[in-house]
Amino acid sequence: MESIIAGKFDPGQQLKWLQDRLADPLTMVDVVANAYTAMNTGQFTPETHDLLDPGSDLRKGLKADSENVTAPSFMVSGWWDLFGSTPTDTYRAMPQTADRKKLVVGEGFHAGAGIKGFGDPGMPPRLDVLQRAWFDKWLKGIDNGIDHYSPLTMKQQGGGWVASDTFPQGGNGYRRMYLNDERSGTANSLYDGGLSGTPRQGAVNDLTVAPGVLSICSRDTARILAGVPSIVMACGEDSRIWENNGLSFTSGPVTQATTVSGAINAHLNTVLDQPDGYWVVTVNDVFPDGRSREISSGQLVASLRQIDESRSTKSDNGDYTRPVYDIDIDKRQTVTPGQPLVLDIAIDPTDAVLQPGHRLRVDVYASNFPKGLPPMPILVDSKLAPQHLRLDPAEPSWVNIPLSADIP
User: Fold this and answer.
1) Angle value at C-alpha 192, between 189 and 197, nearest 5 degrees
2) pTM for the whole thing?
3) Cα–Cα distance list, 183 to 20, 201, 251, 286, 326 (Å)
4) How far apart are the first and last CA of the chain?
5) Over the chain, what is the mean pLDDT?
6) Residue range 364-393: mean pLDDT, rounded
7) What does the alpha-carbon distance between residue 115 and residue 69 come to, in Å, rounded to a whole number?
8) What is the 3-state secondary structure (H, E, C) of 137-187?
9) Cα distances (Å, whole numbers) of residue 194 to 199, 258, 290
10) Is the pLDDT of residue 103 over 70?
11) What is the CB neighbour count within 10 angstroms for residue 143?
């Protein structure tokens, strides 16, 4: 559409796309409508069921087989891109040598893909310059040196641009950071708890969190709307409004620059009063002035907790680093109300740095509208009821997070 507005529409290349859009301008709206009006899974249409069946042609078609990409590839993304949870996975899966694949990850959203300022001093070259150089090299054989650029160029959240040969970056090791009920004195949340490298919970304590709407003021909302709200909302830079709906667990201040590089997993001991529920976890960088800036997030429907072990990864101690879920409606398993259930919640990979004096925070919520809204059968089973995070010394909750140094 931008090409039409700019008067640069090329019928030879774009007419078929335009015809397809005009023929079906509301792609999958019928599926969305059915998912939010069906009162149980038996009322799903075949099309809706296909979206929740990993063996369907639709789901198979949505899967990108990156391991089959053999052409030289230059990718650009952002940590908060609408599709930003997988660029590093895609990069790693490509069976290419480092000279034939490159990835640049900015810090922005889908609108602009985090490339604002490219070409300015201290920034990567403009995207059109990189495109031209890449095609000159691999289509025309011009030896311009772009194949010697860093394989990965990433904007560290909270820091500057870094060049790396691998992701996650070297020098980081997975550590458990335990959630506890020791007050940190830093959060104005439903609950202000602590986060530590050693277990500190002394007795069982059930913390209650209910669905709310303050997630509208969040970085996740800016992300799902492709970054447009970030232009007019400060919510994308500060989670303190949203945290009024959540449980917060905050570490002591770091004494040295501490890198977070890679995927994160939240291992939570939960209790539901209904047969289903929805959990959201964010990881935040807390500034000395109290500002809480989200650096990554994850979410999980309790009944769709089944993990595909063949695609999941673990750290040396056996803790998940990135659980991958089946998302299979036929395997859906509701919860026994009142019975503790341990969930592993995948949090998107990121690269960030906590500056000296900053703290690490984990926030736990029971909703994330509009980014996440489970289908109606799940809402019916959950009744949007309050949920409980159980802090139990015999079955602790923690995040498994890749850090360059221990955090107090």
Assistant:
1) 135
2) 0.91
3) 56, 12, 10, 15, 37
4) 51
5) 90
6) 96
7) 24
8) HHHHCCCCCHHHCCCEEEECECCCEEEECCCCCCCCEEEEEEEECCCCCCC
9) 10, 18, 15
10) yes
11) 8
**Residue position matching structure tokens 């959060």:** 187
Contact between residue 373 and residue 206 where contact means Cβ atoms under 8 Å apart:
no
| Least reliable range by pLDDT among 33-47, 224-238, 267-281 | 224-238
Using alpha carbons, list the distances in angstroms from residue 356 to 14, 20, 148, 255, 283: 51, 53, 34, 5, 17
Calculate ∠ Cα 162-164-168, nearest 5°.
100
* Tokens, residue 16: 């078929």
Residues whose CB falls within 8 Å of the CB of residue 390, separated by 6 or more in sequence, listed in order: 204, 205, 206, 207, 269, 270, 271, 340, 397
Any idea what DSSP says for residue 287? -
List the single range of 14-23, 54-63, 313-322 with lowest mean pLDDT: 14-23
Residue 228 tokens, joined: 């447009």
Strand ordering across the sheet containing 161-164: 73-80, 101-109, 152-155, 161-164
pLDDT at 8: 52
β strands within 318-385, DSSP E: 320-322, 341-354, 359-365
Q: How far, in Å, CA of 366 to CA of 376, rounded?
A: 16
pLDDT band at 81 (very low <50, low <70, confident <90, very high): confident
